[in-house]
Amino acid sequence: MDVNRQQFLEDGYVILRQVIPPDQLDSLRHSYEIMVDRQRATWAQEDPPDGVWGRAAQPRLNLTSLADQIDESTASTIEIWLHENTQGASSQLLGVEDAAVTEMMLMCSPVSDHGPARWHRDFAPAHSSPVMGYAEDILDNGPRYVQWNLSLYDDDVLWVVPGSHVRCLTSDENAQLERDAQAPLSSGVQTHLKAGDGVAYILPILHWASNYSTRMRRTIHGGFSMFTHYPNLSYLKQLSPQARETFGRWVKRSDDTMTRTEIALRAALEADGAAYQQALQDLHPESGSMAMRQSTILLSKSAKRIQDLKRPASGVSEEELSYATGIHPMTMQCGQPMADRFSVAEAGRLWERFRWVDDRLRGDQDATCPGFQGGPTSYFFNDVPAELTVDNFIAQWS
Ligand SMILES: [Fe+2]
Hints:
Layout: H1 5-11, E1 13-16, H2 22-44, H3 51-55, E2 60-62, H4 75-79, H5 84-94, E3 100-108, H6 131-141, E4 145-151, E5 158-160, H7 171-179, E6 189-190, E7 198-201, E8 207-209, E9 218-225, H8 241-269, H9 273-283, H10 289-310, H11 318-325, E10 327-328, E11 333-334, H12 335-339, H13 344-360, E12 362-367, E13 377-379, H14 390-395
Antiparallel strand pairs: 1-7, 2-3, 3-9, 4-7, 4-9, 5-6, 5-8, 10-11, 12-13
Helix pairs in contact: 6-10, 8-9, 8-13, 10-11, 10-13
The structure holds fe (ii) ion.
């Protein structure tokens, strides 16, 4: 599939036509509908019965949690993610040889009209980084992750603000969002997908689900990255030998990435600056200083989460604990399995080490900012302070 990477990098999104080969569309719709029925059967046993399907603005299937229900009739719901038009195109867009699928989901229309959602970027600065941390890494090294919407039926729900993946919002955009975060933005563009088309986009682009209406919506949703984790691969036995081999490669890489993340954290723990810089390079080869800074910010969050999981009694809120267990490989968060690799004493020292980074990322008072997820926070939304560099971080260790 021909992709225009330059346009993708500039605009932060690209629309690709007929990603699902037309002769596969009907059978893929059928397979996904079987999965919808199976998910609904599971939801029907919950309390209240069918609550998600009946109440959610955007009922969503996660194929990972339905992994045990993948069989011959539904294997194509996974295999579409391995197609040249999705996996191959993603590798081109990311500028890598072998992009790996991250999450595999399906977004569905609700049973009653829910109207527009709120404009947002897909992250909360308190748990990842200021937006310019992402932006400067993307401008320097390209994106680490590409997200997809791939429509099984015509879909024009998604709007995006072109170029907003690498910049802060303008004062005019902020003012519009403060007035009404659920209305069209003058800088926004509506995407129009015909059945089988896809839109690939770079987070943290500002985007909007403009209308959760009852119009039939079955849009495959997920992404690709070099950073992955697969909690349940029981569906592998249903896939072709080639697909199994592909996942095998990705699983191996995911294990290696986790080990390299641990090596980076331990290098900081041991105050070994050269080893720390080497570990960052190994995690994100051929990347420049902005990637190393962004990885350092993300590793400071890992250090915090490891500490939260090791010392849950030390005044950590339920919400923080639930973040700490979350596995989000694209932002280098490995949850409990990473915490298990450190002793309580090490976790304490690790957090002390990264506290310098954390302190640089927050002010004295909680604030809010339009267009982000999460509530009021003292963490900066937009800019990374100039003094936060990897060299300055390492200089604190002597
Ligand atoms: Fe979103």
